[in-house]
């Protein structure tokens, strides 16, 4: 393998000895990259609060959905991270991170104060903590302020954009380039990244998979990295096409000793990158881990992503680049797996010749940033034949999907004219997406989703425009026609005046919102954007500079210019087939082999490339009228309506507690305020500056799916989805409501789970955004509208989702486990087709509305608002909601609610399930589950983790014991035992803290034993699913492995779970778990959504134990927790043979599942015969998923 490339990155705040920064200031994010004679190394310093372990996995196999862990640094030679997922985080979508926001359409140029570097903040102008003799510092390019009337607009558009004022670049004498960006969030943390410029692209044909394996071996084989495990630091690594990155997220100093951790972290990274240990034992372990990781990621969804990008013919988007070994890494996993196994799986029937006998490999041409890429540009005037659509057909696919790609050279965003172009492209994208969403108003929409994306790809060095269409197989032609028709309409007629004003205003508002948050943006977000921008040559600005830049060009944006932009972007679709039109770079369709028809079952699905081309041309041939204007309300509740409601209902605050006198309870330590309205609604709020001029709000309604009845199974789930699909409130149409939310920058999500219905809002304080969110919530509760066509769409989506279940190994495996564990309790499982068919609009409406009453509601709000503003909105828009009419009826329904029970089974065949799924590729997964208490310590059988029962001294009488008992302590008698006992209540959060620590310890042991020592899996994890309202819960171990090892992996996982008594928990394990959880809590406290979760249920009668002490004392409880406390939680888990349930799922071509044991083949069952579907997965479509989840 070529050994000429390398990168390292490090992100750290300046050491305290050189900086007296405050806690908020001391977390800086810095990055350096080095280019030496034999490659590049990048050091980046930043801070990051959470691991993104699950999100990182896809990038590690095919290096496509590449997401950085922890804060990132950025290197001038580092290219964009995104590859397959072009819809998120792109420069076009975010308008340069600093530019993607909104204000008014009639803005003027103005100067906005930028973030300043404080005198005690780590900054590049003071780099004395580096070796002064080896630093040649280079400041960023000078910043240029924007002033009103500075230049004429035409001259101004030619000016260069200003550079980020706090971003500093330099180069050490040894060639190491670095970038330094001070950052405050998260505080007292640093992130160190060592990035080597070498990856899978440098592998030769006989080395497939070796780059990934070297990353595993060097990282996990480092003894110095292991020394960091007890310090509170977290470390990880990943490999992509041409980068290998090792990174550490660490506190500035070690807890307890205050020892600076930067030297230890750098020493570990140095050993990993430059003095690696290649131990034979480690190589064998990681050989298995890499193969397991590959099989784990090789889901059908992942294979679809690969096909969409590369295909297996010249029709693929980047197929021209498959001539090098990159081809085998990027091809579908079914193609690459045999080669990877041949290279990593050890001796085979025909072993490759020894290296000494191999001819010298031909080295590939190397590019400083990315491998050579051949582009087939989609530009006017470039002749070429239309690509024949490539069709990927597979038996595990459920829906039709098609991607129509266009590749163009990247337009670097460096001048004001460039940022203006970006702004206009974003307006075009926003307009198209809203127009498409209006197509849902038909009772039977011909598509599931249609998306248009326009993104710069630093990885490939091009801009890609993608039209993505997803539909039911029977509707594929109609869906494709709708997609291209709207493209054609937008290209021919442009946007309307209202659309231009609306989306320009929204983008400016969003940018203004980001600018206000400049000092609270996490390091990872800032650095991701910096790396992405530099990779494609864009000027890097901070959020406020971006907002200024948008303000400076907004007035110059005209309808004619936006129309011209639409023509340029969309011509490759709108003029499809025209000899003068740009030729699409690729057309890739992924389709099932069969489709389901009612009354006929599954029938063969046939489609040809010619049919696809004909549908596109047919859709484009229909005459299209210009888009009509929509009347968008400025408010949903007028002042006159509000005045009338206040006169009628006389809203006011009442005592917070029953029988109490306090109208307002304020906890000074947490800043939490609790109120109660005269209509019975409870309100909790907290004022924070975590998100400047922004806030979040959650309406929680007790009940959920647990209150569904057997004759209306799925009514709550489908009902919530129906209301979400309708989107109609008061006298306003769905389109008007959606546009109102766009204009006011409101994001609203409605969902239901087993215990609650929830409605979440995210809003901005600008231009009355909070008041607008409260108006919408008021109409949802007071004047909701239920539509038959919305019910039809909801039922159709649930049907489709259910029928896709047998084609997913993970879903099907979890389905069997959940069915066995809960004995078919449909409230815990997806509604099945027969139940869905029975549901009518009155039934689902009643199921939802019986729960949606003020006495059953709690509202929580967190944000940057004033006390006066929030309490005015609460009184005006919540206090005027009609009070609950029939409290006894609700109480009766609550009393009839059946508990959720995990019944122990004496039959081994019930507790130990197996499943086989026919697939072209081999994969395996398994779940191990059993009963646990709920979050507050309650079990279904009446036990209570949060209660301590102690024997009363025998010399005391019962009367004396009662006299000595402190308040709250009872004296009880235990059946079958003599003497009395004291029953002491523990802290209400005791059980939750103990179980959280237990989960962290079990996860560490699973990794050490099952993954590391035994090499049976790449990924194994332990999680609790803890109810809040319902008594009980359950634990789940998720395991992925190969078909030949999955049984042993499950047995090893169970041994770890059951072995905590024979292998006692140590104090070091407990301390490590405490550090991890406390670091996570401290970091999350900077997030509004985290606080929203903390204050949820504070006043909920159905969650009686939760109170402010659960938030106030959390850190204290972690400190006090002992090993005995963890074992106390452990003994409440159901771990006997009758209580532990397992299900092993294997996919492959062997009829016995690859393991010799018989297993159920799902294809033997018809969809109608399956009683339930799997919880945990989400279907795509408009609105929020209402799927239940087996774990959280």
UniProtKB/TrEMBL annotation:
<keyword id="KW-0378">Hydrolase</keyword>
<keyword id="KW-0482">Metalloprotease</keyword>
<keyword id="KW-0862">Zinc</keyword>
<dbReference type="InterPro" id="IPR011249">
    <property type="entry name" value="Metalloenz_LuxS/M16"/>
</dbReference>
<comment type="similarity">
    <text>Belongs to the peptidase M16 family.</text>
</comment>
<keyword id="KW-0645">Protease</keyword>
<dbReference type="InterPro" id="IPR011765">
    <property type="entry name" value="Pept_M16_N"/>
</dbReference>
<feature type="domain" description="Peptidase M16 C-terminal">
    <location>
        <begin position="839"/>
        <end position="907"/>
    </location>
</feature>
<feature type="domain" description="Peptidase M16 N-terminal">
    <location>
        <begin position="179"/>
        <end position="299"/>
    </location>
</feature>
<dbReference type="InterPro" id="IPR007863">
    <property type="entry name" value="Peptidase_M16_C"/>
</dbReference>
<dbReference type="GO" id="GO:0008237">
    <property type="term" value="F:metallopeptidase activity"/>
</dbReference>
<dbReference type="GO" id="GO:0046872">
    <property type="term" value="F:metal ion binding"/>
</dbReference>
<feature type="domain" description="Peptidase M16 C-terminal">
    <location>
        <begin position="992"/>
        <end position="1077"/>
    </location>
</feature>
<dbReference type="InterPro" id="IPR050626">
    <property type="entry name" value="Peptidase_M16"/>
</dbReference>
<dbReference type="Pfam" id="PF05193">
    <property type="entry name" value="Peptidase_M16_C"/>
</dbReference>
<protein>
    <recommendedName>
        <fullName>Peptidase M16 N-terminal domain-containing protein</fullName>
    </recommendedName>
</protein>
<dbReference type="GO" id="GO:0006508">
    <property type="term" value="P:proteolysis"/>
</dbReference>
<dbReference type="Pfam" id="PF00675">
    <property type="entry name" value="Peptidase_M16"/>
</dbReference>
């Amino acid at each position: 393998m070529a050994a000429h490339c390398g990168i390292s990155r490090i992100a750290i705040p300046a050491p305290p000895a050189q900086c007296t920064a405050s806690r908020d200031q001391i977390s800086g994010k810095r990055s350096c990259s080095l280019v030496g004679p034999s490659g590049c190394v990048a050091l980046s310093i930043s801070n990051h609060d959470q691991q993104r372990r699950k999100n990182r996995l896809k990038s590690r196999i095919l290096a496509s959905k590449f997401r950085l862990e922890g804060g990132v640094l950025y290197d001038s030679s580092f290219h964009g991270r995104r590859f397959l997922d072009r819809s998120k985080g792109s420069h076009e979508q975010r308008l340069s991170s600093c530019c993607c926001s909104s204000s008014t359409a009639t803005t003027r140029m103005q100067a906005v104060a930028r973030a300043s570097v404080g005198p005690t903040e780590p900054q590049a102008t003071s780099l004395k903590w580096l070796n002064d003799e080896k630093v040649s510092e280079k400041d960023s390019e000078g910043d240029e302020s924007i002033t009103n009337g500075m230049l004429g607009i035409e001259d101004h558009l030619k000016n260069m954009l200003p550079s980020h004022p706090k971003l500093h670049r330099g180069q050490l004498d040894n060639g190491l380039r670095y970038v330094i960006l001070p950052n405050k969030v998260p505080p007292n943390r640093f992130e160190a990244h060592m990035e080597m410029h070498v990856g899978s692209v440098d592998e030769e044909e006989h080395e497939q998979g070796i780059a990934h394996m070297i990353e595993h071996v060097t990282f996990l084989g480092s003894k110095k990295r292991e020394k960091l495990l007890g310090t509170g630091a977290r470390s990880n690594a990943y490999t992509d096409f041409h980068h290998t990155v090792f990174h550490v997220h660490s506190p500035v100093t070690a807890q307890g000793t205050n020892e600076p951790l930067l030297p230890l972290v750098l020493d570990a990274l140095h050993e990993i990158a430059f003095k690696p240990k290649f131990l034979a034992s480690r190589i064998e372990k990681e050989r298995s881990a890499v193969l397991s990781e590959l099989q784990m990621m090789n889901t059908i969804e992942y294979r679809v992503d690969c096909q969409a990008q590369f295909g297996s013919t010249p029709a693929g988007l980047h197929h021209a680049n498959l001539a090098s070994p990159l081809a085998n890494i990027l091809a579908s996993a079914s193609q690459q797996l045999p080669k990877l196994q041949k290279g990593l799986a050890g001796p085979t029937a025909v072993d490759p010749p020894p290296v000494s006998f191999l001819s010298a490999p031909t080295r590939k041409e190397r590019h400083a940033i990315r491998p050579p890429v051949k582009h087939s540009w989609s530009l006017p005037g470039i002749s070429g034949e239309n690509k024949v659509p490539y069709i990927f057909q597979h038996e595990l696919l459920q829906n039709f999907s098609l991607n129509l790609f266009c590749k163009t050279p990247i337009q670097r965003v460096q001048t004001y004219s460039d940022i203006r172009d970006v702004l206009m492209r974003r307006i075009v994208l926003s307009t198209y997406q809203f127009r498409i969403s209006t197509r849902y108003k038909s009772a039977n929409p011909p598509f599931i989703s249609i998306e248009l994306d326009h993104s710069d790809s630093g990885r490939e060095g091009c801009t890609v425009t993608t039209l993505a269409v997803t539909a039911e197989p029977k509707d594929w032609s109609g869906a494709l026609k709708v997609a291209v028709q709207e493209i054609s309409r937008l290209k021919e007629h442009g946007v309307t005046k209202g659309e231009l004003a609306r989306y320009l205003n929204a983008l400016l508002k969003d940018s203004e919102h980001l600018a206000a948050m400049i000092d609270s943006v996490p390091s990872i977000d800032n650095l991701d954007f910096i790396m992405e921008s530099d990779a494609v040559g864009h000027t890097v600005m901070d959020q406020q500079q971006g907002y200024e830049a948008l303000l400076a060009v907004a007035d110059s944006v005209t309808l004619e210019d936006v129309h011209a932009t639409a023509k340029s972007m969309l011509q490759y679709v709108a003029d499809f087939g025209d000899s003068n039109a740009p030729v699409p770079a690729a057309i890739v369709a992924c389709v099932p082999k069969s489709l389901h028809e009612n009354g006929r079952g599954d029938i063969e699905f046939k489609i040809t490339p010619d049919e696809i081309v004909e549908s596109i041309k047919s859709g484009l041939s229909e005459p299209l009228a210009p888009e009509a204007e929509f009347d968008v309300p400025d408010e949903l509740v007028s002042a006159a309506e509000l005045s009338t409601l206040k006169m009628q209902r006389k809203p006011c605050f009442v005592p917070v507690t029953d029988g109490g006198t306090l109208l307002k309870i304020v906890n000074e330590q947490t800043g939490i305020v609790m109120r109660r309205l005269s209509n019975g609604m409870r309100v909790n709020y907290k004022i924070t500056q975590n998100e400047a001029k922004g806030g979040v709000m959650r309406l929680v309604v007790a009940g959920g799916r647990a209150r569904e009845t057997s004759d209306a199974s799925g009514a709550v789930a489908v009902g919530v989805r129906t209301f979400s699909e309708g989107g109609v409130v008061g006298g306003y149409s769905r389109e008007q409501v959606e546009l109102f939310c766009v204009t006011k920058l409101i994001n609203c999500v409605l969902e239901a789970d087993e215990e609650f219905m929830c409605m979440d809002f995210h809003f901005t304080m600008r231009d009355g955004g909070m008041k607008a969110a409260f108006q919408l919530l008021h109409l949802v509760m007071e004047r909701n509208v239920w539509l038959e066509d919305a019910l039809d769409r909801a039922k159709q989506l649930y049907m489709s989702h259910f029928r896709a279940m047998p084609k997913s190994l993970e879903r099907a495996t979890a389905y069997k486990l959940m069915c066995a564990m809960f004995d078919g309790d449909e409230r815990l499982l997806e509604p099945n087709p027969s139940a869905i068919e029975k549901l009518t609009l009155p039934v689902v409406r009643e199921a939802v509305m019986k729960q949606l009453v003020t006495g059953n509601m709690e509202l929580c709000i967190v944000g940057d608002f004033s006390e006066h503003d929030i309490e005015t909105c609460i009184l005006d828009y919540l206090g005027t909601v009609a009070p609950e009419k029939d409290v006894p009826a609700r109480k009766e329904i609550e009393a009839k609610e059946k508990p959720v029970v995990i019944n122990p089974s004496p039959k081994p065949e019930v507790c130990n399930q197996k499943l086989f799924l026919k697939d072209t590729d081999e994969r395996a997964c398994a779940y191990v589950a059993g009963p646990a208490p709920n979050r507050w310590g309650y079990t279904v059988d009446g036990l209570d983790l949060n209660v301590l029962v102690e024997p009363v001294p025998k010399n005391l009488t019962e009367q004396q014991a009662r006299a000595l008992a402190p308040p709250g302590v009872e004296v009880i008698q235990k059946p079958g035992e003599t003497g009395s006992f004291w029953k002491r209540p523990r802290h209400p959060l005791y059980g939750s803290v103990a179980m959280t620590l237990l989960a962290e310890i079990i996860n560490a042991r699973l990794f050490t034993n099952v993954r590391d020592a035994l090499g049976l899996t790449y990924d194994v994890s332990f999680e609790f699913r803890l109810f809040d309202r319902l008594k009980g819960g359950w634990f789940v171990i998720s395991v992925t492995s190969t078909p030949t090892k999955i049984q042993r992996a499950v047995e090893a996982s169970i041994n770890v779970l059951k072995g905590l008594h024979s292998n006692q928990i140590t104090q070091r394990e407990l301390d490590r778990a405490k550090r991890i959880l406390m670091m996570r809590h401290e970091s999350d406290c900077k997030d509004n959504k985290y606080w929203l979760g903390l204050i949820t249920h504070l006043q909920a009668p159905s969650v009686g134990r939760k109170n402010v002490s659960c938030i106030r004392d959390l850190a204290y409880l972690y400190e006090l927790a002992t090993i005995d406390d963890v074992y106390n939680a452990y003994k409440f888990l159901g771990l006997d043979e009758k209580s532990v349930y397992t299900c092993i799922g294997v996919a492959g071509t062997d009829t016995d599942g690859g393991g010799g044991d018989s297993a159920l083949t799902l294809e033997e069952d018809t969809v109608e015969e399956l009683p339930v579907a799997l919880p945990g997965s989400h279907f795509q479509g408009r609105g929020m998923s209402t799927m239940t989840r087996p774990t959280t």
